[in-house]
Amino acid sequence: MTSLPIDVPTDLFIAGEWRPATGGGTVAVTDPADGSELARVADARPEDAVAALDAACAAQREWAATAPRERSDLLRAAFEAIMDSAEEMARLMTCEMGKPLAESRAEVTYGAEFLRWFSEEAVRIGGRHGTRPEGGADMVVRPYPVGPCLLITPWNFPLAMATRKLGPALAAGCTTVLKPATLTPLTTLATVRVLEQAGLPRGVVNVVTTTSASAVTKPLMADPRLRKVSFTGSTEVGRILLEQAAPTVLRTSMELGGNAPFLVFDDADLDTTVTAAMQAKFRNIGQACTAANRFLVQRGIADALVERLTAEIDALVVGRGTDEGVTIGPLVDDDAVAKCLELTRDAVDRGATLVRGGEALDGPGHFMQPTLLTDVPADARICAEEVFGPVLPITVFDTEEEAVALANDTEFGLTSYLCTGDMVRARRVVDQLEVGMVGINLGVLSNAAAPFGGVKQSGLGREGGAEGIAEYQSLRYTLTPL
Ligand code: NAP
Question: Which residues form a coiled coil (predicted)?
Fold first, then answer.
């Protein structure tokens, strides 16, 4: 067993105690760089999840009544503690998820920031009041915590996806049951340990790891005591959860899949565009919902851009994320590699040119060559589906209208990128894009202070920013005669 850089709890966390799963089942967590076992974590059964919800419900009233400053101080202490152990946390993340160490360090900073941001929001919870338009009465609107929440997170950002939900939920006064992804539970468990050590009261955060995601979360989804589900993951699973939410009219936040277009206009600065494109495509080994999935490039700049991107791709170093100089780690599992190969072959079969890559690398580990495709026809599957890997497909366009039409020709609407030297054009195009977020002349735009989220089938609701806490609050309007 590879030794972990930090001591990580591997049991379930229920009512303030670390305890094994009913029946004692465990599941292996492996290193995607070589398939070796890193640890075994508890494999919860449905009754464990119900026990977790029982604990969250028991703690809800008292937690909602705590002083905002108390909730704020807890989140702030957890932020400080994570930053104090940032290097160990980053190494742990790379062990179980595979991303290069520099990117894990960046995620620790980004993920911890949600705890700091929402520690600051916790003491800014407001409301509004006014006189009834007809006069003679006071109208007061106050936000209240929505109640016990189920938080379900994916494997690609194991710290940030957890803190982006825990931060606002705790700040608002909600208790939680957190279900991390089976592939990467260790960073999340380590984060919860930090919260525990910062003074988290019993039952406010409960964690269930399980290989039976559907069976374990279903009883909670059907339980009228649960007041909200916040899910980050695939659109496919999001749809299932939305159906399960209907009978109890459960409040939902859905951060789902993306199919981000990366638009490059002839007037773009080439250096800026290359830097932005490489970040938007290859960060997290292409495994981000915000990853650029389709490059739409105006004809006049296409050849120069392809030449520069080819050189950049040739300079990428594939390997274990902890090794010096590595820029592309392993994909999370064999299915992820298979998807990249399938979508690459489909594009080539439909007429695309394979400029670089296109093959998986021999194991152990799940490695894919960074891949560049040009002349990708609009009907290729990669233009409609998330490739979720290091494959960069380029399609050429002629006019701005054509670019906007291609960009919007998807069921998704999370992120878009846009490179141009003309800010009037940028504004005009932004207004026409059907997405929740746009990056102009850059390749990374996530920030704890900004509302993250999408439109169309990329989801419902926003995480982060002033908007993030509202997802965990319900408004109560009170009218008092004067
Ligand atoms: P996923 O398969 O949908 O899984 C996400 C989480 O849901 C995991 O914890 C998973 O558990 C759980 N799950 C799976 N089936 C479930 C079910 N029937 N009921 C309840 N829970 C269930 O997604 P993923 O492969 O981990 O993540 C990649 C996807 O997430 C991509 O589509 C990406 O775009 C999206 N994503 C979106 C955002 C955003 O903010 N919009 C951010 C990051 C990722 P197991 O691990 O046990 O399967």
Answer: none
Residue whose CA is at the smallest distance from ligand 1 atom 40 = 255
Q: Name the residue of 187, 229, 234, 462 whose CB sits within 8 Å of the most ligand 1 atoms, as the mutation to test its pocket.
A: 234
Q: Does residue 217 have its Cβ closer than 6 Å to ligand 1?
A: yes
Q: Order of strands across the sheet with 205-207?
A: 17-19, 12-14, 205-207, 176-179, 149-152, 228-232, 251-255, 459-460
pLDDT at position 147, please? 98
Per-residue pLDDT at 363: 82
Q: Secondary structure of the chain: what % helix, strand, coil (to 5)?
A: 40, 20, 35
Task: Tell me, yes or no, if 255 is annotated catalytic.
Answer: yes
CA of 160 to the centre of ligand 1 (A): 14
pTM: 0.98
Cβ of residue 256 lying under 6 Å from some atom of ligand 1: yes
The predicted-structure confidence for 420-449, as pLDDT tens digits, reads as follows: 999 999 999 999 999 999 999 999 999 999
Give the model's pLDDT for residue 97: 98
Look at the domain 260-447 and name its fold. Aldehyde Dehydrogenase; Chain A, domain 2 (3.40.309)
pLDDT score at 1: 59
At residue 395's C-alpha, the angle toward residues 393 and 401, to 5°, is 140
Q: Is the CB of 212 under 6 A from ligand 1?
A: no
Which residues in the chain land under pLDDT 50?
none
Q: Which of 297, 309, 283, 294 is nearest to 258 (CA)?
A: 294
Buried b (16+ CB within 10 A) or exposed e, 115-145: bbbbbebbeebeeeeeeeeeeeeeeeeebbb
Establish whether residue 227 lines the binding site of ligand 1, counting it when its CB lies within 6 angstroms of any ligand atom: no
Distance between Cα 151 and ligand 1 center (Å): 11
- In this predicted model, what pLDDT tens digit does every residue of 194-240 receive, in sequence order? 999 999 999 999 999 999 999 999 999 999 999 999 999 999 999 99
* DSSP class of 415: E
Q: Does residue 254 have its Cβ closer than 6 Å to ligand 1?
A: no
* Catalytic entry in 96, 113, 121, 255: 255
Domain boundaries of the chain, sorted by first residue: 12-256+458-481, 260-447
